[in-house]
Structure to design on (223 residues):
């Protein structure tokens, strides 16, 4: 069974701080990694995808991938109250499907 | 651009009844997926389809049936609903593979009494 682990949180940060969200995965052959954001009562929406080791930046968001350590993270700079949501890590499982973590709840206080 | 839609958005049914959840996408994506999301379990894949008339089981397929006669539609049927199937159901699609970005519909909240 492919596993994707995330700390359930909540992770609480003050407005303007950096939020760091972490995800580990069990399948060494995984090649595709995604971060989704899910607001309460809404559907998941893609924030970032990453496929290669290293960092990938998009605005205030940076995804970091370390395949050797089987670790992927999402950094949110200058966190805003509107960033308060649950963040889902998803990893391809090699059988035409994605495995999702249970998500980390982020709370950004004004 | 409607994207991906689900109907109904909310459904209350009784144990033993058959329920069909509809999913429609306007992007002509090849792949479509059905997930359920429950507290403590996260998103779990029920079934997916790579193309019309091609479907495959996911992690939790028992009690569910799918069909895909047209590329744009992917209905999910609960043949005899049970209380354990109370959940939020999400349909998703991707262009040409599951190891790609998946786009989610708005979800259907199902309550089985």
């Amino acid at each position: 069974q492919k596993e994707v682990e995330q700390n359930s949180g909540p992770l609480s940060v003050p407005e303007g701080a950096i939020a760091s969200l972490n995800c580990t995965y069990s399948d060494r052959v995984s090649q595709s990694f995604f971060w989704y954001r899910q607001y309460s009562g809404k559907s998941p929406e893609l924030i970032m995808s990453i496929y290669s080791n290293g960092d990938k930046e998009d605005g205030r968001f940076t995804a970091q991938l370390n395949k050797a350590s089987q670790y992927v993270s999402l950094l949110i700079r200058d966190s805003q109250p509107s960033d308060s949501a649950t963040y889902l890590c998803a990893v391809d499982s090699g059988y035409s499907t994605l495995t999702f973590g249970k998500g980390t709840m982020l709370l950004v206080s004004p | 651009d409607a994207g991906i839609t689900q109907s109904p958005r909310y459904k209350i049914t009784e144990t033993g009844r058959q329920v069909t959840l509809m999913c429609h996408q306007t992007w002509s994506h090849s792949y479509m997926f059905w997930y359920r999301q429950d507290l403590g379990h996260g998103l779990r894949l029920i079934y997916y389809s790579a193309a019309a008339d091609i479907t495959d089981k996911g992690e939790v397929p028992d009690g569910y049936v799918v069909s895909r006669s047209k590329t744009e539609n992917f209905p999910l049927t609960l043949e005899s609903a049970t209380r354990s199937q109370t959940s939020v159901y999400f349909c998703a699609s991707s262009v040409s593979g599951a190891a790609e970005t998946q786009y989610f519909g708005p979800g259907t909240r199902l309550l089985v009494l």
About this structure: The mean pLDDT of chain B is 95. The two ends of chain B are 36 Å apart (CA to CA). Chain B touches chain A at residues 31, 33, 35, 40-45, 48, 50, 56, 58, 90, 97-107 (CB under 8 Å).
